[in-house]
Here is the input.
Amino acid sequence: MSIAIASFDKSDQTAIDAAFQVAAAAQAVDLPDFPQLSRQQFEGGIRHPMPSRSLRMALATLDDVSVGYLVLYLPQAENVNNASLELVVHPAFRRRGVGRALYGHAVRVLRELGRKRIIAATVGPLPEGPDRPAVGARFAAALGAQPALGEVRRRLVVDQADHAAHDALLADARERATGYRTVTWQAVTPEEYVADVGYLDSRLVTDSPTGDLVLEPERVDAERVRGVERVLTARGRSPYHCGVVHEASGRLVAWSMIVVVPSVPRHADQQITIVDPAHRGCRLGLLTKIENLRYVLAHEPELREIDTWNAADNKHMIAINEQLGFRAVDAWTNWQLDI
Here is the structure.
């Protein structure tokens, strides 16, 4: 048996199709509660990378059968010594050296590019959660990677949400948020808030727990905000936003975003929620999350599940999410490896 690794790019539809089949098979085994992977989701990520990021891809074949793939995400503005790695092996072909072959290819490419560090994530079980294969964690540890940040995925099942409790939480948050008002929008940020969204987005690495990950804060300006919006549109994703405006200054000082993939309308991801440090203590994070949850549910009647990830030691945001009814599902580990 011979393992072959071949690079490909976004113009190679045959290779993209083969990688998609591997990804779909792996997700069905490793994350069975995820919605079935759609081709739109997978291809969108390859064809439309985020601003200031380039990709390198490779496909692994075993006796001419596609058995694994690799995507390297290469920051081009900040964190230029880093590379994020997505390495997936078909469940039927694991423990045959495919992962090692893909990893070896990745290291050769990254060294040629002058990169010094790989960051990658794996999933595992929680003590009282559903079973999850430990194959990813074992592989990362065997390569010498170090666990740098632990996260937990939580899920809100919409039909089980306690809307009366949400009403009470929202009333309390509004009472505490005197001098602020909420605004909502889809897709394109209103021009008067785009600089503030960039500022808040830039604070994410500074304000959120990052464990031992070696990360620089991103400098997100209005141009990059618009670039992200274009990418999400090109990928066929529908973002819903809620912000909080400080009425005295007119600035947007808190922001939350939920993203829906129309091809999988029952599922969404709760992504960033962040509050300007100068405006904390007024329940603005809770306010934006509840208002945005209501906003997305009013526009997405088929939505049934919302997932979110938090650093395991982000006690403040975890408390907010659990108040809203998010419950822990599985554990995720961000690994780091110097090359």
About this structure: The first helix runs from residue 13 to 30. DSSP finds ten helices and twelve strands in the chain. The CA atoms of residues 215 and 228 lie 20 Å apart.
